[in-house]
Amino acid sequence: MAFFGLDVASRGLLASRNALNVVNQNITNSTTKGYSRKVATIRASNPAPASGAGMLGTGSELVSVDRIRDDYLDTKVWGEQSVTTEWSNKSEYLQQISDIMCGTDVLNAGDAVNEFFTAYSKYAKDPSDTNRVVFQQAGEDFVNSFNSMATDLEELQNTLNIELKSQVNEINSLADRLARMNKEIYDLEVRGQDANTLRDERALLIEELSQFADIKYEERNCGKLQNGKDDIRVSISIGGMTLVNHFDTAKLELVERGVKANPEDIDGLYDIKWETGNSFNVKSGSLKAILDVRDGTGNSIDNFTKGVPYYMKQINEFARTFVKAFNEGIKGNDTTAANKSMGHADGYVSSSKPGDALPHIRFFTMDKMSSAEFAVDVDGNPIDETDLEARNALYDNVTAKNLSLSKDVIESIGNIFSTKNIGDLDDTGTLYGLVSFREDKSLFEQGNVEDVISSWISTIGSQVQNSEKLQENHEATLQQLQNNRDAYSGVSLSEEMTEMLKYQQLYQSCAKMINVMSGIYDTLINAI
Amino acid sequence: MRLTNNILMSNLLTNLTKSEERSNKLQTQIQTTKLFSKPSEDPAAAAKAYRYRTQLSKIEQYIKNTEDGMEQLTAQEEALSSYNELLQRARELNVQATGVTLNDENRNAIATELEQIKGQMVSLMNTSYNGKYVFSGFQTDQKLVNDKTGHYAIDIDASEQIKYEVGTGNPVTINTIGTDVFGEGKTGDKPEAIQIMDNLITALKNDGANIQNHIADIDKIQENVLSATTDIGARYNRLETTKTQLEGEEANIESYKSINEDTDIVEAYVKLVSEQSVYQAALNVGSKIIQPTLLDFLR
User: Fold this and answer.
1) HSE of A99 in the Cβ direction (CA atoms, 13 Å)?
2) Among the listed ranges A225-229, A481-485, B145-149, B151-155, which one has the minimum average pLDDT value?
3) A51 touches chain B (CB under 8 A)
4) What pLDDT score does A301 carry?
5) In which band, very low, low, confident or very high, does the pLDDT at B299 lie, cut at 50, 70 and 90?
6) CA atoms within 13 A on the CB side of B36
7) pTM of the complete model
8) What are the 10-residue block averages of pLDDT along chain A, 528 residues in total?
């Protein structure tokens, strides 16, 4: 027991220096993302029998450095993270649909349609060449606005599809990294070493993963290891299917659709599958946002979000019904002669000469076809113009994307409807009659032309508004949960400063103790 | 709850960002003078804004139509009133020609004046406005009456009424069918008044032997013209009333539209100022909370 006092004091020096190191580590990492504070536990070391009676304390020692982290709080954060990401991405995607459907400034929405009617009304009132040119241009603008809506929607669907691919790849690579990290942590912990830093890193990776989908994190106790420790294994699953199981992963695969889910879809859309062949289900996260908006028809049980296919169908139906009513005077699919009004194809055009047969010119066709190319049956023979069913069927393949002015009208304004009797220049009543469908409340499901466009504005508007609200709510909840977690695991500088002072003073006191002990021994040694 | 520096920071940041967002929205509202530019900011108002604009574009067109219709009717009314004056003069000349014994010179003078009147009548029947013949029914590119012979040059059907839309499903006829006013007839027939002029002129040139009294006929024509003029006047009044109504409606919708989408600048400005003071306060408080740690007191 020689130099016992010096020994005790030096243990104190060591313990306080180690504790100061932990404080130091905490302070330097106080802003590090995902860092959990560490707490040094110092315990009195085992006492030794004193000379004489009782036990004598042998000083203090650092027994452990613990990572302060609560799995429960993590799980809450991860769950909220995936919902928050879903809604923030959905808001962004739906806003893009809104921009496509309503323009970047809603106060200009539907201008092309209104302008078409205004230009036509001017033309109907005064069928001069000047007004004919203006109307032709308005027709061109109308067609262009629908063409670009369709192209932009397709482009959005394509972008989402590409984004889906890159996210699935990212999930697979995260799965690999997590499996590797599980192994490193397991190996360290089996050997009884500290894997605190790696555990922080793994939690960060899982948090990253939770943005993509709703994940479930589990630590299972699989019995005892040879060295007597618990055999703890980690698994992470999505939609009930295991993505990472201990050191193994199950990957996701992208399968290009053979058959389109919706006729409006573009080619080459991917479905996600597990490499095991099982189908992939996701309830939230950025994948859910992509799938909802990319595939949302608004009426399927699986996906009732009104996404790209819904709006594509809307503009296709609108364009088809609109041009059919203008060209043929057929309202919707009502082919009874009594309900038909005069259409563009039923009259003479301004270049018709006395004695000419009815030219049956269509103002709109698809893919810039001429009326003669357009008005044919399935076998390519000209249709019977008195057969309303046949005329109705011409529009089955018209979409917002392929809609165009007819070649006849593009080439000459002389091919624009002018009258029902050659020579009647100013038959304004008949001319106005061509657009009487504008006010027809039974033309569309939603009502008349105006009702359809305003329903688009309010539908997409409330969709975006709704997802922005949800995004805001979830962001607030997420922040609250992150704060809760931070309150538990985060570094408080004031706290660390107190600790620092505490251990600094401990260190100083121990040093002083050495001084005193040294004095004692000095006295003793010199006295001999 | 244990508060860490990161929690303080992130809370401060969130609050500042929210305040900035509100200020930014108010600034945009003031700068653009519009309450919203995206449907999501107020879906119902955005849909309404579209409806108001559509209604306004229709009403503007209807107002333009009433104005143009009124111009057309005015042109017809003026033509018919000149025509009526000519008929009046012809009636006087007819009285002169039959009433007193005339010498050749007087008869020739009357015949010459009637010739002139006939010429003027023909040109009135072919009155054009904005390059369109107003009495020719739908065939506004065709003269009603042949300039040289005075015969009808075209056939007009009574149904050839040019209609302008001055409201939804509210057409107003803005032309007057020539044959209704000037007498029924097909191509090659002569309008009644022209026929009378011709008869008088021929008789006067033939020593005045067979001069007939056409006064009763002329009276009848005048009556006809008068009723046509009255009809034009009635339609003109209807257009005028419609126009007043439309303008009232336009003003109403403009004001609804403005309430719906325009920023109340004063209100927005006051809100912005208060928002900015909130922001300043948040910044001040934030800087005070975040700065001090125990570190500041360890010297």
Assistant:
1) 9
2) A225-229
3) no
4) 67
5) low
6) 24
7) 0.89
8) 80 93 93 92 86 80 91 94 96 96 86 94 92 96 96 97 97 96 92 89 95 94 81 91 94 94 93 93 94 89 83 96 96 91 93 91 96 92 93 94 96 93 88 92 93 94 95 95 94 90 93 90 85
**Residue among B225, B217, B261, B275 nearest B91 (CA):** B217
Instruction: List CB contacts (< 8 A) between A504 and chain B.
Output: none
- Is there a contact between A461 and B168 if contact means CB atoms under 8 Å apart? no
Task: Mutate one of B16, B53, B163, B295 to test the A interface: name it (highest A CB count within 10 A).
Answer: B163
Query: Are residues A97 and A312 in contact, defined by beta-carbon separation less than 8 angstroms?
Result: no
Q: Which residues contact A411 (CB under 8 A, 6 or more apart)?
A: none
* Number of Cβ within a 10 Å radius of residue B164: 28
Closest residue on chain B to A95 (Cα): B40
The angle, 0 to 180 degrees and rounded to 10, between the axes of the packed helices A286-295 and A308-328 is: 10
Other residues' Cβ atoms within 10 Å of the Cβ of residue A28: 11
The pLDDT value recorded for residue A300 is 66
pLDDT of residue A326: 96
Q: Which of B54, B59, B50 is nearest to B248 (CA)?
A: B59
Helix axes B5-32, B265-290, angle to 10 degrees: 160
Query: Which two structure tokens, joined as six digits, stand for A457?
Result: 């504005």
Helix or strand holding residue A453 (H, E):
helix A449-489
| Per-residue pLDDT tens over the stretch B157-181 | 888 999 999 988 889 999 999 999 9
CB A359 within 8 A of CB A352: yes
Best mutation target among B25, B38, B67, B157 (most A Cβ atoms within 10 Å) is B38
Please report, as a single letter, which amino acid is at residue A474.
H
Helix (H/G/I), strand (E/B), else coil: A40: strand
Burial of B109 (0-12, 13-18, 19+ CB in 10 A): middle
Compute the nearest-CA separation of B294 from chain A (Å).
5
CB A130, CB A413: distance < 8 Å: no
Residue pointed to by tokens 């999930």: A171
**CA-derived radius of gyration, chain A:** 38
Number of residues in chain B: 299
**B50/A106 Cβ within 8 A:** yes
> Do the Cβ atoms of A335 and A388 come closer than 8 Å?
yes
Residue A192 CB contacts under 8 Å (≥ 6 apart), including other chains: A227, A229
Q: Virtual CA dihedral for A363, A426, A348, A397, nearest 10 degrees?
A: 20
CB distance A439–B168 less than 8 Å? yes
Which residue, chain included where needed, has tokens 């190319």?
A373
Contact B4 A491 (CB under 8 A): yes
DSSP A366-417: ETT--HHHHSB-TTSPBP-TT-HHHHHHTTTT--TTTEEE-HHHHH-GGGSE
